[in-house]
Write a structure and sequence with these properties.
Layout: E1 3-7, E2 10-13, E3 18-25, E4 33-39, E5 46-51, E6 58-60, E7 68-73, E8 78-83, E9 92-99, E10 112-113, E11 117-122
């Protein structure tokens, strides 16, 4: 029911900023909880941020609190992740995900996934 496509990744110097975008297609996009996960080389996928369907409630991993901001524009079927003060350890493939039930940090709870966009932060 939902297709997700990420964009906005790239190469950035430490301390720089990027905004990732997730374009969603589907008739019930507005009712989905949306989230961002990331996966670094040799590591498992980890939770980054999530946002409720109405865009009011948000949740962040401790590693990105104060630096990253998740937002959504339901009229445009878009979800965003603004990343500031980037660090080399933020280097990963970033994935957009959708959940039909609730906000959760568990990747297996999410029903739909994008293909990912690469973020590389140089020292």
């Amino acid at each position: 029911q939902v297709q997700l496509v990420e964009s906005g990744g790239g190469l950035v110097q430490a301390g720089g900023s990027l905004r990732l975008s997730c374009a969603a297609s589907g008739r019930t996009f507005r009712t989905y909880v949306m989230a961002w996960f990331r996966q670094a080389p040799g590591k498992e996928r980890e939770f980054v941020a999530a946002i409720s369907w109405e865009g009011i409630s948000t949740y962040y991993a401790d590693s990105v609190k104060g630096r990253f901001t998740i937002s959504r524009d339901n009229a445009k079927n878009m979800v965003y992740l603004r990343m500031n003060s980037l660090r080399p350890e933020d280097t990963a493939v970033y994935y957009c995900a959708a959940d039909t039930s609730k906000i959760t940090t568990m990747d297996y709870e999410y029903d739909y996934w994008g293909q990912g966009t690469q973020v590389t932060v140089s020292s």
